[in-house]
Design brief:
- By secondary structure, the protein is α+β, with helices and mostly antiparallel strands.
- The protein folds into three domains: 66 residues, no CATH class; 250 residues, Transposase Inhibitor Protein From Tn5, Chain A, domain 1, CATH 3.90.350; 43 residues, no CATH class.
- The protein contains 14 helices and twelve strands.
- Strands 1, 2, 3, 4, 5, 6, 7, 8, 9, 10, 11 and 12 form a twelve-stranded mixed β-sheet that branches.
- Helix 4 packs across helix 12, helix 5 packs parallel to helix 12 and helix 13 runs antiparallel to helix 14.
- The protein is globular, with a radius of gyration of 25 Å.
- The mean pLDDT is 87.
């Protein structure tokens, strides 16, 4: 009997593209992944309770025949079924590593330890992740970023060392977007990309497919133009690419009587701002009309921020709200590191490096989706505090662990003759394992 009975159906996105022996080994490894205190491959093997040699589990990621992208497409179809408009978010994250023999390692900027004026670099892996922004069914206005595709970024020095072609982070993002566009070509779905200025800069937006809508950030002094005027019949010379120059967004804030609004898009965060808007074409993407929203914070030291959206009929508040949904991917990065430990495996094989962390991202998506769809009641919060409105990912993982443990005890500890004292210790240990999430 499978210990992950309530979770096994979702694991079919992996096992359906594996042969039977690999699928059986993979299910055992996932059981150990959920229960292990340390998420190295050996830690997962020990937590699973299997007696098989650890090499069989290493081979799942290093040499078994299956495609991690194909699994990602299955997860995408699962979480977007019935939705014609899909919001996606893209960002990069750093996994610190040790050792010179681990494939793909290099020095990367650590966004957690760095600030605008102070940059900290660390040795490790940098991943570019594409995630579906999913609104909770149990808690309205709560959104999760469910990873579906991911790529390891190699800096120039690492690319030379490992004899690989160098690709920028934005190149990896565009590759994933093109693959996703080809995947949904027959499903009549539209994609709406949410990203920070590193992934939605004007030069990047000009390279994106026109079928993808974009909401992002630009500098306050960005260069804007009117759309190119229509060419008259018989007009000599080359057709114009851009129209007349428009004022920079920050110049709009000099006007008096601008609208003042209170923003409450982030939990327990209230911002008072002055707001202005305009329409135009970005200099590096002159063929797409965008709506620009510029805000000036009236307190807090955040200064001036400028956002844009290719959906020009949206209200300015809608543009700001949609951009705020991008924050869910930052929460995802925190949870996968803190609670799933996907930065712990020290892979040396190329294929293993690219599959292990990507499997952890997809496992996070499946746990969120399992809690939202399979479990009839929200997970009971194990860590309560004032103002907590919904279970955290740690609570969801603890709920899945609890069900897994109950299945294991039903098959292994169901003997009616267990003394009450021993049963008491079993219940206590079960509670500790749940809290370990």
């Amino acid at each position: 009997m499978d210990d992950l009975t309530s979770f096994a159906t979702l694991l079919k996105v992996f096992t359906d593209i594996m042969n039977q022996p690999t699928a059986c080994t993979f299910r055992t490894l996932i059981r150990g992944w959920l229960l292990a205190p340390r998420r190295t491959i050996m830690g997962m093997v020990r937590a699973s309770g299997t007696e098989r040699h650890h090499a069989a589990f290493h081979r799942i990621f290093a040499s078994a025949r299956w495609s991690i992208d194909q699994v990602g497409f299955k997860v995408f179809d699962l979480v977007t079924a019935g939705n014609q408009r899909v919001f996606i978010s893209v960002d990069d994250t750093l996994f610190p590593r040790r050792g010179l023999k681990v494939f793909g390692t290099g020095m990367h900027r650590d966004p957690v330890l760095s600030s605008r004026s102070h940059h900290v670099t660390r040795w490790g892996h940098c991943w570019v992740v594409l995630a579906v922004v999913f609104e909770s069914r149990q808690f309205p206005n709560l959104r999760f970023a469910l990873p579906v595709l991911s790529r390891m970024y190699l800096n120039k020095k690492a690319a030379r060392k490992w004899q690989r072609t160098y690709y920028k982070k934005t190149d990896l993002m565009i590759e994933m977007l093109n693959k996703l566009e080809n995947h949904i070509a027959q499903n009549n779905k539209t994609l709406h990309l949410l990203g920070d200025s590193a992934f939605t800069a004007p030069a990047i937006m000009g390279r994106l497919p026109r079928s993808i809508q974009v909401t992002g950030r630009i500098p306050a002094d960005a260069r804007l133009h009117e759309p190119a005027p229509e060419r008259r019949a018989g007009q000599p010379g080359r057709p114009r690419v851009r129209g007349a120059r428009l004022p920079a967004p920050q110049a709009l804030l000099q006007a008096k009587g601008l609208q003042r609004v209170t923003l409450n898009f982030y939990e327990n965060t209230i911002q008072h701002v002055r707001l202005a808007q305009m329409q135009g074409c970005l200099y590096r993407a002159p063929d797409r009309l965008v709506q620009v929203v510029i805000i000036e914070h009236l307190g807090g030291g955040r200064g001036i921020e400028t956002f844009y959206s290719t959906v020009v009929d949206h209200e300015p508040i809608d543009v700001l709200e949609q951009y705020s949904w991008r924050w869910s991917i930052e929460v995802t990065f925190h949870d996968v590191k803190q609670h799933l430990g996907i930065s712990e495996p020290q892979n040396r094989k190329v294929t293993a490096c690219r599959r292990t962390a990507a499997t952890g991202f997809l496992l996070y998506s499946l746990i969120i989706w399992w809690h939202e769809t399979t479990d009839l009641k929200p997970a009971k919060s194990l860590r309560n505090w004032t103002g907590k409105r919904h279970p955290s990912f740690a609570d969801m993982l603890a709920c899945l662990r609890s069900k897994t443990l109950k299945t294991m005890m039903k098959s292994n500890l169901s003997t009616p003759g267990i003394p009450p004292g021993v049963r008491k210790h079993i219940d206590y240990l079960t509670r500790l394992i749940e809290l370990a999430a």
